[in-house]
Amino acid sequence: MKPNPSLPSADFYDHQPIRDQFPTLKQTIGDHPLCYLDTAATSQKPQAVIDAMTEYYQLNNANVHRAAHQLSTRATQQYEAVRQQVAHFIHAKHQQEIIFTHGTTESINMVAYGLTAQVQPNDLILIDTAAHHANIVPWQELAKRTGAIIKPIPLTADAQLDINAYEQLLQAKPTLVALCHVSNALGTVNPIIDLIAMAKNAGALTLVDGAQAVAHLEIDVQQMDCDFYVFSGHKMYGPTGVGILYGRFEQLNTLTPMLTGGEMIKTVSFDRTEYGELPNRLEAGTPAIAEVIGLGAAITFLQGLPREQIKAHEQLLMRYLQQQLLNLGDITLYGVSNDNSQSNIGSVAFNVANEHHQDVGILLDQQAVAIRCGHHCAMPLMSQLKLSGCCRASIGIYTNKHDIDQFIHALNTVKELLL
Ligand SMILES: Cc1ncc(COP(=O)(O)O)c(C=O)c1O
């Protein structure tokens, strides 16, 4: 991608009424308005999410499923209504295919643990080189338990998944392919439907990490035809502490539960325990009830937005952000396709000349600009890029052109200080 000073700075969607719903963004730090460009780490929360959780604690606080009193009935109804909502949101076939977890990390661990009995020594597991550690380490643990072999799917020189190399690897008939939908470090987007179709042709199970996709893209797990799709509430304007494991019913039903105990059983005696049906068999213990209700409010919030306009706005912002960075000079962008054929989603990764990413982050913070610096929980990707780390600026539905301008102005000051 080349610098282009003539890129449009107008035509952004006027979404001030949406931004106004995020109380955190109304603050100043020092003399500067907060410029939050760390949405890929966690998004800010709209008032509707905060209110839904407060209302649960103020009016309906009770445990779900077990008691025969009205508070519990209300809490259970709200909790189960969110399951239905999530199923609808990602176009799952049955609501029993939606398991509430504590986040993407737990969801992947549940699948990796749950498959232990089905994986044999020398079975092959393919993992996207751009994967987050949450989509690497649980598979390594599975390999330790079973004797399976892990191979990374290589990337091309511009950090896109290498389809030819993938095709070659699939000839060895892997048992499972673990992909990311959108890379958290670079914002690159995988052609997920094609990748899954190729894996299925080779007879592999597929798990897609959608943590960075679900807030930006319409997700249709049936169209995607994946076996598992996982994401976290806190990256889609919902609370921390709740996530989703979607699984095709037949696949979920064969997973060995990672957690056992109350809620997930049909009968228990000291001789024998019989597990309950899905989804309960994979939801042992008291769930994160308020957080699930908050997630439901986040989905309602997202569904009430003009998604196409927001998508166009985010795409324009991303291009503006990339171009403004390049126009600044002394900036290297990572994971941007050379011919501009692939657009990134949500995140832009960069470094300033040879300066340490952490120094850049600290100096930006002094100007109230929040970005993330480091390896972004993607050390194999960083080593492929021959980097110890980089800076990442990431946007959300509340980000506006002023944020980008404030960031670029602050980065220019950092450059003047450092170079
Ligand atoms: C692509 C991706 N996968 C997994 C995770 C882990 O998510 P969580 O910490 O919510 O479990 C993240 C978080 O940054 C992510 O971006």
TrEMBL record:
It comes from Shewanella metallivivens. SUPFAM superfamilies: PLP-dependent transferases (SSF53383). This is Cysteine desulfurase. It catalyses: (sulfur carrier)-H + L-cysteine = (sulfur carrier)-SH + L-alanine. Its EC number is 2.8.1.7. CDD domains: SufS_like (cd06453). Residues 36-407 form the Aminotransferase class V domain. Belongs to the class-V pyridoxal-phosphate-dependent aminotransferase family. Csd subfamily. NCBIfam families: sufS. Keywords: Pyridoxal phosphate, Transferase. It is an enzyme of class 2 (transferase). Catalyzes the removal of elemental sulfur and selenium atoms from L-cysteine, L-cystine, L-selenocysteine, and L-selenocystine to produce L-alanine. Its cofactor is pyridoxal 5'-phosphate.
